[in-house]
Amino acid sequence: MEIVNKVAQSKLITIDLEEWYPSENRITIDLKDILFQGLILREKDLREYVASTNFEFCKDSLVNIICSADAVVPTWAYMLLSLHIQPFAKRIFFGTTEQFDTLMFEEIIAKLDVSNYHDGKIIIKGCGKLPIPTSAYVALTNKLLPLAKSIMYGEPCSTVPLYKKK
Prior knowledge:
By secondary structure, the protein is α/β, with parallel strands linked by helices. It has two domains: about 5-20 and about 100-165, no CATH class; about 25-90, no CATH class. The chain has helices at about 5-10, 45-50, 75-85, 95-110, 135-145, and strands at about 10-15, 25-30, 60-65, 90-95, 120-125, 150-155, 160-165. A four-stranded mixed β-sheet has the order 1-5-6-7. About 15% of the residues are buried.
């Protein structure tokens, strides 16, 4: 008796968000490291930092700027730092890595051509190795909903049915 792989023969379309995960080097620059006594940002200290730092290490990288300390940091400080990073970085973002991932995936999904998913039986792959934000799964589901015949989550051998067109 021949063993038939029915999953491989089915017309299921698997979408793996990990395939769209940015592959560029990622760098976080935390202003807490230059705060006076860990609490106060002094303009002089920041200007010395940006003047003495070779931001070549940011070359072709995705850079997010944060201040993880509980300190009041004026907006201009982030702006000044980004101006010095700009000649090197591929992209600069203010916020956490998680917030950056959310923004990147929102942009990727907004630009995604979903016309070839019309009447498709779609599996949105989960349980990967990379930290895909939940918001990306929600955005993709909402974008596919008007077109898909069905939407499932998981792996082809073990899916959770989410939607089936009536």
